[in-house]
């Protein structure tokens, strides 16, 4: 199948956190058209079972694929951990990229001591996707992960800075930070797309001795490299358009998005879509039967 370099890039997440990836894509690829899908009816994914996350991912990808996109970016660490390879098998004709591999690469390039921490949702830490990806690249690394699901609520409520937020951050990070100096981290991966909004508070807690790795920024660079490699960069010079799709609550999405996205979103411009009733044939037609669940 021949892809149109002028087509849009599809981006999906469980809700609003993936807007941090969208921000980065807008900076790195300002003339690319972007279609963002937030599955706000079923957020959060981070506490769901692998079976549920796989099904949600299939439906979101199918909905985006139906819009004739040229690439899919999974702007969700949980889906990247559980369903990236599956979706790549389902859509072999277009690039499908996640956020974990770029984040792991950046962590390995950043660390000086090989002591790396990962903070993420419960599902991502339990899956150990970051740990495995980092150790594949840097076998001698010592990787410790901590679930910080409470950070998601802080981010969505707009509680990004201040003494109270820093106290909560310090309490959640204490298992990673309360170690002997020879085991101390020098790199911390923000393994959830909500977490970059808390960057200031996290930095206040961890200090200058620990470098923060934002998987959203590194993912945008990898997307650009992949599109260039496949000759799919938009040849136009005008700023790309944005399309927003949600599965519930367009008004709330637009309001909460102010905590994550650098541009104001008009609620009237957010399209409500139903992806929960995607025809099984739609997904099956794109997937190889052996890879489908």
Automatic annotation (TrEMBL):
Domain of life according to the entry: Bacteria
Reaction catalysis annotation: L-glutamate = D-glutamate
UniProt binding sites for substrate: 13-14, 45-46, 77-78, 193-194
Pathway: Cell wall biogenesis; peptidoglycan biosynthesis
The protein's Enzyme Commission number: 5.1.1.3
Entry keyword Metal-binding: no
Active site (catalytic residues): 76, 192
Keywords: Cell shape, Cell wall biogenesis/degradation, Isomerase, Peptidoglycan synthesis
InterPro entries: Asp/Glu/hydantoin_racemase, Asp/Glu_racemase_AS_2, Glu_race
Function in brief: Provides the (R)-glutamate required for cell wall biosynthesis.
Family: Belongs to the aspartate/glutamate racemases family.
Protein name: Glutamate racemase
Protein's organism: Marinobacterium weihaiense
